[in-house]
């Protein structure tokens, strides 16, 4: 892998590398990145990997290359501005709803804010980073009292504390470093949205690349509600002399009325009342921004800067939504009134086009993950990020004999020259694909149990047959079970049933405590079960006897009423592709692979992945999904599986 990355950087060719857990993939891209003559950006999806790189891998690597004068071992971490404490907000106060600076909130919140301020001042004195990840335990609400967004920031030149600013110092360190470690979202803002956030670079390594499309989609998703417009109007009230803020408040009322008249879900066309309300909001916000003073002293007023930023954001979102672009998906999200009521959301229909035109065309990109080959090849992931199958410089993988052409997933139904149903940029983007394998012998270490005898999952959640199967498997494993469920209700139902029938075991459900605490309890006592949803599918690393059984209740297809996924599926169908395979099945394959990957984390691990959805064994698309999983030994015999789990749980039994 290291040689392939070095070749890609030298030849300026994109590279996709599937590298399983335990292969040492981070060192395999860090070494050639250090040896590359120009700055390299490393983008991760999770804080856990970012911490691993900065606290373990990079320090060891720097120590190893010490004394080599021709190697620049410098590195820095760079995050979005809101991830750093703001000294101006800490020392000058926080604007209230009317924009007046207030010192400290009352009550327990005030005590927490004071503690956070003390920590931040200590960071400033000691030349610390001021990063949120290094702060004492806190809530989002507390952090908002000591941080600002990029739009709220006064800017280094106008801020009296600009020379001490944690975010500015982080940018300076990045500008002086060979390697810059950041996240997918900041990369998206810099490269795809074109807002300069990262010092000049020509190479990007995207780790956890299976997440990059969803993270870029998230970064490009905007939301708007009547309550948010009203709040922006209140903030602007004291900074304009005319009726502009009142007009914006009136427009918020019109937006609220239009949203209340709509049912939750995707809007295939913009209703007239909603379109009119968005235009009102857009025009009122534009007038409100224009009415704010533009003199230099006004720009240094923190309350005014925040008010202007809020109104500008309202304008941007309303303008985008009112445009009703074919490249966007618009939907109404139903929120609890206590959280602001109905909300309008907009997201890009696809991101492969902007990624191709603005990232791949400008940079050399290495995509790597333990899960990049879905259905047995790279086509699904390659097309999702803007690479065409015909641009691959070597022949693509040939599907196995059990995988018909119609079930190959993305690329199996179109000519292979379109990414996600479109044309993309005209300049060719050559790329290579490499699977470096795994140090694990999945055929001997893991069993894939296909519960073919169970009834197909229904809309009413887990039935008695599934609950019986779960209880029998957990009993055989004597705990040691990670349950990955399609919904919170299913996880709670299973946990309640296991608690009732197997009271001698400890059964935890997501929501019983913070995820970190649940993970700690799960690791400390092997006779424990942990049942949860999506955050457990990808974010939990529990090697050893703690986890010898992974239960997956159903194939994790996206919900049929998911506005964005259903729109993407329909768009692929309309373009002549297979929307189900290219969107829904690809989504499910990725999550199945990630969930199954929770089981084997070291060469010593043993266990069972039990999929309680018979469609994995019976449906035509089952071949594509199974080809996306590690090559475990598969069986449909429940007795064989229970006996294996019993032997694992009691290794010294006769």
Automatic annotation (TrEMBL):
Residues 1-259 form the Helicase ATP-binding domain. SMART domains: HELICc2. Keywords: ATP-binding, Helicase, Hydrolase, Nucleotide-binding. Residues 390-436 are annotated as: Disordered. It catalyses: ATP + H2O = ADP + phosphate + H(+). One of its GO terms (biological process) is nucleobase-containing compound metabolic process. One of its GO terms (molecular function) is hydrolase activity, acting on acid anhydrides, in phosphorus-containing anhydrides. Its EC number is 5.6.2.3. It is an enzyme of class 5 (isomerase). Belongs to the helicase family. DinG subfamily. PANTHER family: DNA REPAIR DEAD HELICASE RAD3/XP-D SUBFAMILY MEMBER, REGULATOR OF TELOMERE ELONGATION HELICASE 1. This is ATP-dependent helicase DinG. It comes from Nocardioides donggukensis.
